[in-house]
Design brief:
Order of helices and strands of chain A: HEEEEHEE
Number of helices of chain B: 2
Number of strands of chain B: 6
Distance between the termini of chain B: 38 Å
Oligomer: heterodimer
Structural class of chain A: alpha+beta
Largest interface: A-B, 44 and 45 residues
Helix content of chain A: 10-25%
Strand order of the largest sheet of chain A: 1-2-3-4-5-6
Shape of chain A: globular
Strand content of chain A: 25-35%
Shape of chain B: globular
Chain lengths: 158, 152
């Protein structure tokens, strides 16, 4: 079990924010195999493919180093926020380019709230027609982008 | 009457857009001729058409409700609004901008530290600054004033 107190704290804040941004949605908290916190935001109490479903996970970034006793380095920060959504079965606008089934409004709320949480923000889209988002979607092939925090730029209200 | 801060924010945003939206997308910088506030746009062409990936951004200070010391309209310097408008796609609630591109844009604009307002104009015409009206406003995200967003 390698989860961190910070990951739990960030997820609590994320849930608090989304409870206000998407009040009619169902929130299901969970953990992955390493104990990192996850949050499933779904339109229905049991997520249905093609509906508005978002999976969020908070975890520390992987490190390449060894610790003082040559074991894997324990990691506490920085953290990443990963989100996954489902893609369209076939793009009706521009074949070959991925769109998510999320509405533009929900995309705005999700990206807007998570990108400024102070973590590396990673967004994944799983191929359309392969079911609802799951932890297995967090793979490089599905990654759309990473937006890193501005470390030296304290982002307060302008 | 524009503000130095609006242009400063636009200057900060422009290179990020250049880097994150490479060709074939282009980044256009201009000012609103009616009030002088900076405008940025990411588009597929210099003269965008309906159905393309076009995102238009305008940065300006919040409107003030007060009068200044000589009873004129109060000049506003902060906080600033960051507004973006896109065209609604063929299906309601969607846009022509890909999930990757609009996701990156939302992420950048919300971190700029202003009040981020997202507009969607009706399908059928490319978005322009005149579409940034209350009827088209989808959502507004406020900055976390008391929460300094540093790397976690």
């Amino acid at each position: 079990m390698t989860t961190t107190v910070k990951a739990e704290a960030i997820m609590r804040k994320v849930r608090d924010v989304f409870t206000r941004l998407m009040p009619t949605y169902v929130f299901t908290a969970g953990v992955d195999s390493d104990g990192f916190p996850t949050l499933y935001i779904s339109q229905s109490s049991t997520p249905v493919a093609g509906q508005q479903n978002i999976l969020i996970r908070v975890k520390p970034d992987n490190l390449f180093f060894k610790n003082a006793i040559e074991s894997s380095q324990e990691n506490f920060c920085p953290h990443s926020i990963e989100t996954s959504a489902e893609g369209y079965r076939a793009s009706e606008f521009d074949p070959g380019v991925t769109y998510s089934v999320l509405t533009a409004l929900n995309e705005m709320k999700m990206h807007g709230a998570l990108a400024k949480a102070g973590c590396s923000y990673k967004f994944y889209i799983k191929p359309g027609g392969t079911g609802v988002p799951s932890l297995a979607d967090f793979v490089t092939a599905n990654m759309q982008f990473i937006v890193n925090p501005s470390i030296y730029d304290l982002e307060v209200a302008q | 009457m524009s503000t130095t801060k609006a242009f400063s924010l636009a200057r900060k945003l422009k290179p990020q857009l250049d880097y994150l939206f490479p060709a074939p997308l282009i980044v256009i910088q201009d000012v609103d001729p009616s009030d002088g506030y900076p405008i940025l746009a990411v588009a597929e062409a210099l003269n965008p058409a309906s159905g393309q990936q076009t995102m238009v951004i305008k940065i300006l200070p919040e409107t003030q409700f007060f009068l200044n010391s000589i009873n004129g309209t109060q000049e506003g310097f902060a906080p600033h609004d960051v507004k973006m408008v896109v065209e609604t796609g063929a299906s309601p609630g969607t846009t022509y901008v890909t999930a990757r591109n609009i996701g990156v844009m939302h992420s950048l604009l919300t971190k700029l530290g202003g009040i981020y307002q997202f507009y969607m104009r009706a399908n059928g015409s490319n978005p322009v600054i005149a579409d940034m009206i209350a009827a088209n406003l989808q959502f507004s995200l406020d900055p976390d004033i008391y929460n300094k967003l540093t790397a976690q």
